Amino acid sequence: MYPKNILKLGAYAGYFKPEGEWVSSIYKEDVVYGVKLGVRVWNNLSIWLNGMQYRKTGKTVPLEDITTVTLNPIYLSLRYTFVLGAFNPYLEGGFTYIYFNEESEIGTTKSEGRGFSADAGIELKLSSHFVIDVGVKYSKISVNPTNFDVQLGGLQAGVAFLVVF
Question: Is 158 part of a structural domain of the chain?
Fold first, then answer.
């Protein structure tokens, strides 16, 4: 028999504010969404795998060409949860991989990058099977699509509804 409360899985939605000057000047902040999976490995320590998507259309400067960017970050991190009862704060940090795709009237650019992320938040225990996870994430991720580094990380705040197994 498997131990209780070893797995958490659920949907995520949040608000993403890109840090890089190039990305933030064209695309601005917007919604990010995805899924989160956490596996408890020892006491209050767990491994988390999160997959997300940010997709935004904007206009290039100065020509004002229509362009769409899609960012698909995957986060692999360790989380330590301070178990206090119904409100359980946590700290998390780890590795980030990102797939970058930009499509515009002048062409398509694709790239991949790596970086890190740091999180802090609170798990609100609704019952033995449901948790609301509210947190903030800072990520620093670079890609090099056309021989210059582009910063695709930034600040993110969001909420996840998790089912506990």
Answer: yes
Helix (H, G, I), strand (E, B) or coil at 116: strand
8 Å CB contact between 156 and 136: yes
Which pTM does this prediction carry?
0.92
Q: Give 108's Cβ-side CA count (13 Å radius).
A: 4
What are the pLDDT digits (tens) for 36-91? 999 999 999 999 999 999 999 988 777 788 999 999 999 999 999 999 999 999 99
- Find the CATH number of the domain harbouring 26: 2.40.160.20
What total of structural domains would you count in the chain?
Answer: 1
Contacts of 133 by beta carbon, 8 Å cutoff, 6+ apart: 8, 10, 12, 36, 121, 122, 123, 124, 159, 160, 161, 162
Cα–chain center distance at 27: 17
- Full residue range of the structural domain in which residue 118 is found: 7-164
Closest Cα to residue 102, out of 140, 61, 72?
72
Q: Does any domain span residue 33?
A: yes
39 lies in some domain? yes
